[in-house]
Write a structure and sequence with these properties.
The protein is an alpha+beta fold. It has five helices and three strands, in the order H-H-E-H-H-E-E-H. The protein has a single domain, classed as Arc Repressor Mutant, subunit A, CATH 1.10.10. About 70% of the residues lie in helices and about 10% in strands.
Length: about 110
C-alpha cells in the first residue's frame, strides 16, 4: 500500500510540474503579445480584475482615467494576447478577464 501512495504522490507531482510548465508557456506567450503594452494597458487589466463578470467598454472607461477610445485600444491589445475575452451584445462590446489575464496579473504583482 505504501508503494501505491508513493506512486500516486509521484504522479501528482509530475502533473503539477506539467501544469506549471504549461502555465509558464502561456504566460510567456501573453508577455510577448503584450511586449509593447504600456503601464496604462496593464492598469486597464488591473481595473478589469476588480469588476465581477463581463462589463462594457463604456462602463470600464467610466471607471478609468482613460478615454473610451484608449480603453478600447487596451482591450483589443489584451484580447489579442489572450488576457481578456470579448463578446458583442448588439452594438455593445463586452469584456471580461480570462484565467490567463488573472495569472498574468498575479505574476506581474509578484515580480514587483
Amino acid at each position: 500500500m505504501a508503494s501505491n501512495l508513493s506512486n500516486a504522490d509521484a504522479e501528482s507531482e509530475t502533473d503539477v510540474v506539467r501544469v506549471e510548465a504549461a502555465v509558464e508557456q502561456v504566460l510567456n506567450g501573453v508577455r510577448v503579445g503584450l511586449d509593447g503594452a504600456t503601464a496604462k494597458t496593464l492598469d486597464t487589466l488591473q481595473l478589469l480584475a476588480t469588476i465581477e463578470g463581463p462589463v462594457s467598454i463604456s462602463e470600464l472607461a467610466s471607471d478609468s482615467d482613460a478615454a473610451k477610445s484608449t480603453v478600447a485600444r487596451h482591450v483589443t491589445q489584451l484580447a489579442e494576447a489572450g488576457a481578456v475575452r470579448t463578446s458583442a451584445e448588439g452594438k455593445t462590446k463586452q469584456v471580461e478577464l480570462t484565467l490567463t489575464g488573472r495569472l498574468l496579473l498575479r505574476t506581474h504583482a509578484e515580480s514587483m
